[in-house]
Amino acid sequence: MADTKISALTAVGAAAGANEIAVNEAGTSKKASLTQVEALIAPAASDTVAGKLEIAIQSEQETGTDVVRAVSPGRQHFHPSAAKFWVKATGNSTTIVVSYNMTSWADTGVGDADGTIATDFSGADWCGQVSIIDSTVAWDATFTEGYGFDIHAAGTFGVKCGKMQDGGTAAATVEDPDSWHVCGFGDHA
Fold first, then answer.
1. Which residues pair with residue 111 across a beta bridge?
2. Angstrom distance (rounded) from CA 169 to CA 166
3. 51, 78, 105 - which closes a domain
C-alpha cells in the first residue's frame, strides 16, 4: 500500500468486514480487517465485559433460554413469565380502572363479567388468575366466597363470583365484588 494522503482516497461504499485498513503496530505498518477493528473497539458483551449487544427476537423471548442477547421493552412481554394481560375492573359496571392489553370489560349479570384481550393468546391453553376485593362480605366464619373463570378462550374470558352462607340453611348467592383483578400468562398469537 502506497503512502497516500487520506484526502486523496476514495470513500468506501459500504463498510464490510473483509475491508482492510492500515494500522501502525509498534512502529510497523500492518493491515487489519474491519471485523478485527470492530472486535477491538466493540467486543461482544458478556457478564464481565462491556461491549456490543444483540437484541433478542420474539422467538428467543418465547423460549426463555438465551442468556447472551438483551431484551428490549417492546419484546419482554413475550417471555413465558410475563403477564400477557391484566385488569382491575369495577365489580358492577363496565369500567376498567387500570389494565394492560385489554380492550373491553362487560358486566353480564350479578357476579358475572366478561373480558376481551387486545392481543390474543395462541390458543385457549393459557393460565389465568382471578381475585377480587369485596368489602360487603364479612370475611368470617359466616360466609364463604368463591370466584374464578367460567369461560376461557384465546381472546376472551369470563369470571364469576358468589358466596355461600354457612350454617343449617347453607344459602348460596351470586354477587358483584367491589372490583375484579384478573391476569393471564401464556403464548401470544
1. none
2. 7
3. 78
Per the CB < 8 A criterion, the answer to whether 162 and 171 are in contact is no
pTM: 0.71
Report phi then psi at 61, rounded to 5: -70, -40
Domain range for 38 is 10-78
d(CA 130, CA 159): 8
Minimal CA–CA distance to 117: which of 63, 183, 36, 32? 183
Q: Which residues in the chain show pLDDT less than 50?
A: none
Here the cell at position 29 is 505498518
Say yes or no: 128 and 173 in one domain: yes
pLDDT at 116: 98
Question: End-to-end alpha-carbon separation of the chain, Å?
Answer: 56
132 plus 54 within the same structural domain: no
